[in-house]
Amino acid sequence: MYMFGYDVLLVLHKIFAVFWLSMIPADFLIHRYMKSAKGKTGERKLISLWLKMLNMTGMVGLTGILITGVWLVFILPYYGFFRMTDNHWLAAKQIDTVIIMILTGVYFIPLGKKIRLSLGNEEETSGLTDESYANIKKLSNIAIITSVLLALNYLFAITRTMM
To answer: 50: how many CB neighbours lie within 10 A of its CB?
Structure first.
């Protein structure tokens, strides 16, 4: 039963990781369309879609990774939290995840709320304010930083046996 539980948790952990990593290409594609729709009809819908995608992949991915990751550390005696001496790859992943959580709480959520409020009615055709575009740019930059951290986290996981 122990190994079955481990296998299920590990598969779930990987599924949540893939879901979270799907943010990277989705962000790239949607943001590309947003740039071409700037000031045009449909811009607000694209921005709203972008916000929903960032929100959904982040909530599901981060929550799933946290729950399954913590559970895996608890059931496997040779893993621990932030122990650089035995599993430096895991400690690096954990530190990376904490940084992502801080970025999410300090920047992602507040900027997302500001942008959502500035969108008003998605059907409006009038342009967004300069402040709205500045917030979109900031959130886009934070999304890029988060994507790099996610990719780094993934690399720690897949290269752990090489170190």
So the answer is: 23
- Name the pTM for this structure: 0.82
Extended beta strands in 36-104, E state: none
Domain ranges, residue 51? 2-162
Query: Given its phi and psi angles, is residue 120 left (phi above 0), alpha (psi -120 to 50 degrees) or beta?
Result: left
Q: What angle do CA 135, 149, 54 make, to 5 degrees?
A: 45
pLDDT tens sequence across 112-130: 999 998 887 655 656 678 8
Q: Token pair for residue 42?
A: 């449909």
32 has pLDDT over 80: yes
What distance in Å separates the CA atoms of residue 139 and residue 116, rounded to the nearest whole number? 12
- For the chain, the domain total comes to 1
Query: Contact 144/24 with Cβ under 8 angstroms?
Result: no
Digit-coded pLDDT (tens) for 127-147: 678 898 999 999 999 999 999
> DSSP character for 78?
T
